[in-house]
Amino acid sequence: GPATNVIFRHADGTRYGGAVNPIAAETSSKLFFALRHMGFGESETRRAVDAVSTHVGQGEPLEKILPRALAVLHPRK
After folding, report:
1. Is the model's pLDDT at 1 over the cut of 60?
2. 26 or 5: whose pLDDT is higher?
3. How many CB atoms lie within 10 A of CB 41?
4. How far is it between the farthest Cα atoms of the chain?
5. Which long-range contacts (CB under 8 A, 24 or more apart) does 20-29 make?
6. What percent of the chain has pLDDT over 70?
């Protein structure tokens, strides 16, 4: 059957249909450009930003979110 636990979110981590948080949207954008500047490809950068979107939506600062995104891209073994 169809997936029932799928949640669609805006770039700032808020659910579709909810209000977009401008501060979280700016943080998400800064995170994207920081990762791209570090040399990560667009698709892997989007994957990392999506993976930490909950933290972005909770208003965590970029300094705390960036290490989380890097951990998604380079998990420790």
Report:
1. no
2. 26
3. 11
4. 41
5. 21/57, 21/59, 23/59, 24/56, 24/57, 24/59, 27/56, 27/59, 27/60, 27/61, 27/62, 27/65, 28/53, 28/56
6. 73
* N-term to C-term CA, the chain: 35
Q: What are the tokens at 24? A: 């979280």
Amino acid 72: pLDDT: 93
Angle at Cα 49 formed by Cα 47 and Cα 14, nearest 5°? 115
Sort 28 into a burial class: Cβ within 10 Å, 0-12 / 13-18 / 19+: buried
Structure pTM? Answer: 0.72
Q: Which amino acid is at 2?
A: P
Q: Do residues 3 and 35 make contact, with C-beta atoms less than 8 angstroms apart? A: no
